[in-house]
Amino acid sequence: MRRDIVHAGAGSLTYEIREIVAVGRQLQSLGVDVTWENIGDPVQKGEAPPKWIRDIVRELVDDPASWAYCDTEGIAATREFLAARVNERRGGVQITASDILFFNGLGDAVSKVYGQLRREARVLGPSPAYSTHSSAESASSGYKHLTYTLDPYNGWMPDVDDIRMKVKYNDSIAGILLLSPDNPTGAVYPRALLEEIAEIARRSDCFLITDEIYAHIVYGGGRLHASEWVGDVPALAMRGISKEYPWPGARCGWIEILNRGRDENFSRYCASLLAAKRLEVSSTTLPQMSIPRVMGDARYAAHLRGREAMFERRADEAVAALAGCDAVVANKPGGAFYFTVMFKDGVLSDKQTLKIESRTVRERIEKMVEGVAPDKRFVYYLMGATGIVVVPLTGFQSEHHGFRATLLESDDAKRAWIYRTLRESIDAYVAS
Fold first, then answer.
1. What is the pLDDT of residues 202-224, one digit of tens each?
2. 27 vs 384: CA distance, rounded Å
């Protein structure tokens, strides 16, 4: 074309979680029985939302209002309900309904949050990084995403000194991103650590972004929201229903704007988020209408507790299957529904393989692994040999090599097979 029309950050729009599906589809076409462990969709893996939640949604479908546009910010009654929930948290930041802004899922929220930043204003995020955040920040800025370290030998906790030094010596950093519970590691950060990071942000005049999509999937209780620990630091807390009901297909998420009035520049930035949403008219109406009725129902608390206990049992199963494996570090997650397995330094090589019975599949895998990262090589061989699709850890902008799998398989026997097969495959691959 007469002009280069490609955005400078277009090459950063990668999402390994979905891109690995293309490889899995190729193997399916060759007769491989594929088990999808790549994506966090509880419903796809056999968990149906409770009947009482589905009954509420069914009733709302019969309400003509659920078929209409809503306010750009979101349904007023729902925003008032959510603001009241925030304000019930003891000692937390107080907000109004105008501090709640709805999006078509958190993917939409993430895109808007980074897309409305000045290109020179960078957000420091964790590594391993969740691809939606890291890709959006990198694409918006046109540069490689800036990261701080999560330490696998300390339960994947953030290296606070790394955060402090990077914020201190890079004045382009305007914000700090936190995910707790974290994706992909499942780590849950203690309050003291979160408050220390908030203090770094306060002293450096930065804002915080907290992704709380898994805030109500924390093993053993101890849920903690940003409004409870940010103090007076301006922040955006991201929430949604996709993992809680669960209803991933609803594409319904929102942000809580905390301490908007503390900084004029932050307030103008938040106004730009609403302006960007006005161009789309509104987000989906039906899921928003369900929130006060579902979350306000007396059964919802027990629903959340039951799911937390279920995922903790599955986390115990996964970690037990990998116990005693000297080749990897496999920390038990503290929340969400993933677990990350990291290969120790020096374990992987470009000579290791797994036995693949089909010659056609084996030849396809051998072509695929040419020039790829060591952990992706393992992931491809794992797919070819067993059909299990996991996500390589380097796909999360990580210097560590490993993979992320889920705790979502609802069939007990199949889940046991998945974890057993992962362990057997690691042992066989490392020994080859």
1. 999 999 999 999 999 999 878 99
2. 7
Q: Assign domain 10-47+301-431 one CATH number from 3.90.180.10, 3.30.70.1660, 3.90.1150.10, 3.40.50.1820.
A: 3.90.1150.10
Distance CA 177, CA 268 (A): 20
Look at the block and give the residue holding tokens 């078929």.
Answer: 67
Q: Is 224 helix (H, G, I), strand (E, B) or coil?
A: coil
CB 128 within 8 A of CB 185: yes
Ranges for all domains in the chain classified under CATH 3.90.1150.10:
10-47+301-431
Q: Between β-strands 173-179 and 207-211, what pairing exists: parallel, antiparallel or unpaired?
A: parallel
Question: What distance in Å separates the CA atoms of residue 226 and residue 198, rounded to the nearest whole number?
Answer: 10
CATH number of 51-295: 3.40.640.10
Give dist(CA 350, CA 188) in Å, integer: 34
- For the chain, where do the domains classified as CATH 3.40.640.10 start and end? 51-295
Comparing CA positions, the residue from 218, 258, 210 lying closest to residue 238 is 210
Residue of 244, 167, 231 whose CA lies nearest to 199? 231
What stretches of 90-174 show up as alpha helix (H) in DSSP?
105-115, 131-141, 160-169
Six token digits for residue 25: 């589809």
User: Which distant-in-sequence residues (6+ apart) come within 8 Å of 100 by Cβ?
Assistant: 73, 74, 78, 79, 82, 83, 254, 255, 256, 257
Contact between 135 and 15 (Cβ < 8 Å): yes
Q: Give the predicted TM-score (pTM) of the model.
A: 0.94
Sheet holding 402-406, edge to edge: 328-329, 338-343, 402-406, 391-392
Helical (H) or strand (E) element with 257 = strand 253-258
Give the lowest-confidence range in 19-28, 293-302, 378-387.
19-28
